[in-house]
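Q: Convert this sequence to structure tokens.
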Amino acid sequence: MKIRALTALLFVTSALEAASTSHGITFYKDALPILQKRCQECHRPGEAAPMSLLTYKDARPWAKAIRQAVISKKMPPWFADAHFGKFSNDRSLTQAEIDTLTAWVDGGAKEGDPKLAQANPTFAEGWAMGKPDVVIEMPTAFKVPASGTIDYTYIVVPTGFTEDKWVEKVEVRPGDNSRGVVHHIVLINRPPSSGLMKGISQGVAFTPPHNKEPANRPVDNGKGSFFGLGTDGSEMVSVYVPGGMPYETRPGQARLIKAGSDLIFQIHYTANGTETPDRSRVGIVFAKQPPKERVVNTFIMNNRLHIPPGAPDHRVDALVKINEDVVLQSLFPHMHVRGKAFEFVARFPTGETQTLLRVPRYDFNWQLTYDLEKPILLPKGTEITATAWYDNSPNNKFNPDPKSDVYWGDQTWEEMLAGFVDFVIPANMNPSDIVRGKQTVARQ
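A:
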């Protein structure tokens, strides 16, 4: 009986201590600093999030929703498995931060003393990266219809650059009043040597024809290739996603946009019930001096994938080989609505392997870039495998048709295996060397 009584006493004491702690948690002293550090970048007027969290008046009506979002780790969005790799832009909450926000809500979401509040951070108006050196905008607005499915839309815009430009910051943004209809934007640099979308009128919205896959289509769920490298030099230079950040290189680095290049805006629009015009744009900040290192973006792809009908956990690999030393700086997995999980693995010439990134719960609505805290040298001969898992079963609530065979395609009801990577190479190195090696490629 004494043991039971002691146990009960300890339980009551613990509960009282927890209650006392939660009642001592207030918005200005405890919750606001976390919101400032982790949330306000998106949760403020004019940005992607549906509500502002700048003030107590803003946040209080959403207290229960905040509690649920942080406990479930739905917010802030971050999907990397913590067991593999460390990333400089990791936005996930610590357990202490989760406990604090939860205690604030459980204690009645009290306001507290405004004098204890830290000033909210100052956010740049219009451009998160600061004032751009040049802004390139779609020449005419695209009218996003009020309803229906909108195919991926491509718009080619000339840069007007008459000389090669080294670029250290790139930020893509939807039009001022069209954030609600822009799901994401991929910005592709098309140099004059590229044949990508040749013949397409500049400034005019273009939708590629739908793929019609032949029954005897050659399928290879293992072999991969690089987009742009070793072929025509086309390169992704930035992406817009809600909550995403501008693409910035590190000190001494820059991206190259050649003279006479075009920029291709690939835009995924989603109807929201109101016809909305969009003139998306990109801001660019040039490097102040020639860089020592060049950052090259490409993606590892397998465009010969095939996902059978009803498959709940179908695996597809894309294996590529690095033929010169490069440094890996960032990773960005991309699939469509059947995407389930994604992983990058490096196999070094020594035979050792390293999991670079694992995303066990892929979410098409949050396309995130993962910046390595410490970039990794990939010696010549290293193999990278990008592996994707797909759910083509009826259990996938986003699946448009579980009974269909699924192949590569731009549309969201088709699929992709695209593992984007940022490689760092010497500024005077030809990016094609990564694929073919220096001995087999004529210098540019």
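The radius of gyration is 24 Å.
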